[in-house]
Structures are given as C-alpha cells and as structure tokens.
Amino acid sequence: MTPVSGGAAELRRPAAVVPAGERGATRIADRVVAKVAGQAAREALGELPEDAARPYATVVVRHETARIRLHLELEYPGDIGARCGRVRRHVVERVSALVGMEVPEVAVQVERLHPATAYGAAQGRTR
Questions:
Q1: Which of 27, 41, 55, 92 stands the most exposed, by the fewest C-beta atoms within 10 Å?
Q2: Per-residue pLDDT tens for 91-112?
Q3: In this structure, what are the phi and psi dihedrals at residue 6, rounded to the nearest 5 degrees?
Q4: In what order do the strands lie in the sheet with 56-62?
Q5: pTM of this prediction?
Q6: ω into residue 14 within 30 of 0, thus cis?
Q7: Contact partners, residue 25, CB within 8 Å, separation at least 6
Q8: Cα–Cα distance between 71 and 57 in angstroms, integer?
Q9: Distance between CA 33 and CA 58 in Å, rounded?
Q10: Are strands 102-115 and 56-62 parallel, antiparallel or unpaired?
C-alpha cells in the first residue's frame, strides 16, 4: 500500500520564513552605474582644462558584472597612458565599493587632447 498525500493540508503548511532583509532582489540600472563611473573618473582626473567636456561613461550590466567604457578629454603634453591607468583603477575601485559589482573591463577612450596653456604660450604660439 502506498502512502496518500494530505492534499489540502499540505498546501496550508506555512513556508519557511525568510527574513525581510533577504527577500526580493535589487537591480541597479546601467545609467546609475554609468553615473558612478563618470564621477569616479572626474575624481581621478582632478582639475580638467577649462574647455574640456566632463568625463562620461557608458555601461553594460549583466548579472553582477559591469563593463564600462569611459570617454575623456585630457591635457597635453602629459603621460596619457599613466593617467588612463590611474583613472581605470580608480573607477574599478569606486564602482566595486559603491555599487557592489565586479568590473572586469574598463575601456578608456580619449576623445580629445587639450594643449596646456603654458605650453602654447612658452612656444610663442597663438590661435
């Protein structure tokens, strides 16, 4: 003889209680992560040339991973590679800390170089 299920009695049994803090899911929009990344880039760059556009980011979020593309304008002459590396590291650190996502890739795109004012003036160049 096989046991018979309790039918409706089994349906009324309360499910395991999950604490309120562990229920549901949190989804952080791509544009929110992009704003955090753009702000982190501004922090890392410090002072920008006066006619430079603010850095901005585009982001693709999948699960708990954010892939970031930064768009920057930098002052020239200067060590572009070192500045991009510093920005990249700072953005990874801040996005990970503030948003809690893994950042495996930060692509930095330098949109424009701005000549340093002192550099052009020292060469006697005018525009």
A1: 27
A2: 999 999 999 999 999 999 999 9
A3: -75, -5
A4: 56-62, 65-76, 102-115
A5: 0.74
A6: no
A7: none
A8: 6
A9: 9
A10: unpaired
